[in-house]
Amino acid sequence: MGRLYGQLQDAARASLTPFDTMFEVTRRCNLRCAHCYNPPDRTAAEMDTAQACAALDKIAAAGGFMLTFTGGEAMCRPDFLDIAAHARSLGFAVTLISNGTLITAEAARRMAALGFADVGVTLYGARPGPHEAVTRTPGSHEKSLRGIQNILDAGLHATLRSVIMKPNRGEHEALVQFAADRGMRQLIDVHVSPRQDSDPAPVELQLPEEDLEPLYADPRLNLSFAGLPRTGPPRPDCDAGRSVCAVCPDGTVYPCIQLPVSLGNIVQQSFDEIWNGPSARDLRELMAGPLPECSACALGGYCLRCSGVAFLEGRGLLGPSPSACQGARVIARLLGHGHAATDAVKS
Amino acid sequence: MTNDSLVVKRNPQVAWRELDGKIMLVTPADAMLHLLNDTGSFLWKQLDAPRAANDLAAALCAEFEVDEDTARGDVREFIQEILGKNMLERA
Q: What is the ipTM of this complex?
């Protein structure tokens, strides 16, 4: 959505409007993806249908507009499409992120009738082998492909979402072709975050730095670093807790899906109590300051640091993020500014 | 060319919200985000029920200091543009 999306985010951020919300309806999932950021315990408490709809009422009243349903696998909830229908009745622009395996032709037609803005399906390989090396679920590739076809047949706008890691190394070429052949938008990532309980296990799956460079350099993957290098040091403040929020299955509100710090619970509190409460205010104040360890970094201009990822990586909200340091080294080298700068950061 | 008696309504599949007085919309066919200008935002807000182009022009005259011809022209342009983007439907 590009530049206009950024402009609206900026306007929403200035007025503390929760413009963009990630809404986890469940932690249940029928796949066992090796890199999943959710903790392996899938039994987290869930809002019931009425509570989830009431939560959406509160976010809509606060000005929420972009709404991404995720999980777990949202389609594991039999009432998911009822919740989504309620969201659409409130005027939200609804997107779903799904593994696609449970999206039947009938479900896809209902999503289309509701006016879903986009359905994103995670696919880790154009072939079963690489895909199921990530999902660790035999037969999941075929089911995801069927779901994708149902989505396309229903006329929905579809996005192919992939992460390239060690188990599916090299599969990006085939995935680019897969998306192009079907007229799908494509999002490819190469960075893996620790789990939300800070378990670093998924990070072991990330490709080594030398393998990231050709992926960053490939324009088809759109791992964009346009606008870099920036001038001035990196800053911690972002849209989290300002124009972005996330809701967990039990109603806990986070400032961002990547920043699992509770601001309150939307079942028990009004949105205003959460959004303008002490935790949210403290977070904004903390994130308005400088980054003590990063301010003097020679790679600051190339850094795409995320405070939430830094937090999950165990370096604190204001600490350096090893994955961002790695990305900055790669980008600096690709922009031909590598050697002097890369000596400065060896995390 | 848009007829002044044409009656239009919002496409119910379009997601929209007001932010700082302006209307932002997402069209599901292409997942594109759009932002209406002040005039477009005003006209969109008038469309809480199907309205004829003539009525929209009258509302525009009443709200802004514009003559009738200018208002009709603005409404025609608005309808033509956003009908083309499937944000509106013929009622």
A: 0.87
